[in-house]
Specification:
single chain; 377 residues; alpha/beta; Metallo-beta-lactamase, Chain A; Rossmann fold; binds zinc ion; nucleus
Length: 377
């Protein structure tokens, strides 16, 4: 870090300094959102029109990534089909600015080969592999949960990545949580048992705009029931072009015992009054609140998950993360062996950047020792 590299004038190749005094500087697109050697940016809508930028890539439809995007946006946006559907429906950006790209298919964008790869985050979330005419490969993970299946992505096989723009949300060994399938199996098991024990159980799953759908769809499939969603949530789910959505989602709360509610409605009092609206059909609530890693919910195995109970309302916080755990991130980086890593999350303070830099160096030397050991064998 620290050296200066200009990109269409003005941009420097160093992280902005925090805590400076005086008038606030105009929001300038930081270097880690720009793809050097191109005129592309990733997830950089909050900086308005960026001078010299010709293509705005959007990794997925979470607010902190599309913030600043409005129906008045007048530049080319590249993303997955699902994310383009969401941008069109929820933000009303005009069709002519939206360029949906297929997955796993190298596409030419202004002379740069761009391949979208499934990011295992929320629906529509992708990683971008940029392959430049000079032979440099840059991979931007967007938000992702690394998975061993990514090691079999044809686009990454034998691909020498120069710069990895890495989702470093949980880049610390303290961040350990169970695999998604383990958490889903746990929730399904609890739900099935609750319904067997009391057929008048109403099941509620908390949800944000998009993400964590796998939890409630798995419960629906296991119980053989539909999923009731609010009108707003259904509009969002309709953008996913998914057979499961068409088959399972309903607006009629009387039609199914499984309801999806906004996360903010999972407080005991809210659930209590929600249940009142469904008596006498149901007389108790079992709720699941999928969270990422939290201090209150720092379990590395599902065996340690404990519910909170209040009368006939039971709430399970479940550690369902859509970001990589530390060990998953480490394995992905050691598989990819990038020449350089740029953290895209928690990169605001010199202290946390330094800590991550140390971790990356450790992974690198460990990885080299391992490959040397396997070479010697
Ligand atoms: Zn996200």
């Amino acid at each position: 870090m620290g050296r200066t590299r200009n990109w269409n004038g003005g941009a420097t190749f160093s992280y902005p300094r925090g805590g400076s005094q005086g008038a606030p500087a105009a929001k300038q697109c930081p270097f880690y959102k720009k793809i050097p050697g191109t005129t592309f940016v990733v997830d950089a809508f909050r900086y308005g029109t960026i001078p010299g930028c010709t293509a705005y890539f959007l990794s997925h439809f979470h607010y902190d990534h599309y913030q600043g995007l409005s129906k008045h946006f007048r530049h080319a946006i590249y993303s997955s089909k699902v994310t383009c559907n969401l941008v069109k429906k929820k933000i009303r950006v005009a069709d002519r600015y939206l360029h949906p790209l297929p997955l796993n298919t190298p596409c030419d964008v202004e002379g740069v080969q761009v391949t979208l790869l499934e990011a295992n985050h929320c629906p529509g979330a992708v990683m971008f592999l940029f392959q430049l005419p000079d032979g440099k490969n840059l991979l931007h993970t967007g938000d992702f949960r690394a998975d061993t299946s990514m090691e079999c992505y044809p686009a990454l096989t034998g691909c020498k990545v120069h710069t990895l723009y890495l989702d470093t949300t949980y880049c610390n060994p303290a961040y350990s949580f169970p695999a998604q399938m383990e958490v889903i199996d746990f929730a399904v098991g609890v739900a099935v048992e609750a319904v067997q024990h009391n057929p008048k159980t109403l099941i509620v799953c908390g949800s944000y705009t998009i993400g964590k759908e796998r939890v409630f769809f798995a419960i629906a499939e296991a119980l053989g029931c539909k999923v009731c969603a609010t009108r707003d949530k259904k509009n969002t789910l309709d953008c996913l072009d998914s057979d499961q959505v068409k088959r399972l989602v309903t607006l009629n709360g009387r039609e199914t015992r499984l309801h999806v509610l906004p996360m903010k409605d999972l407080k005991f009092n809210s659930l209590k009054s929600y249940l009142e609206g469904y008596r006498p059909q149901y007389d108790s609530v079992l709720a699941f609140e999928p969270t990422g890693w939290t201090h209150n919910n720092s379990v590395s195995t599902v065996a340690n998950i404990r519910p909170k109970r209040h009368g006939n309302i039971t709430v399970y916080g479940i550690p369902y993360s859509e970001h990589s755990s530390y060990t998953e991130m480490k394995r992905f980086v050691q598989f990819l062996q990038p020449a350089k890593i740029l953290p895209t999350v928690n990169n605001g303070s010199p202290k946390s950047r330094h800590a991550m830099e140390q971790i990356f160096q450790q992974w690198d030397s460990e990885g080299k020792q391992q490959s040397l050991a396997s070479w010697v064998k």
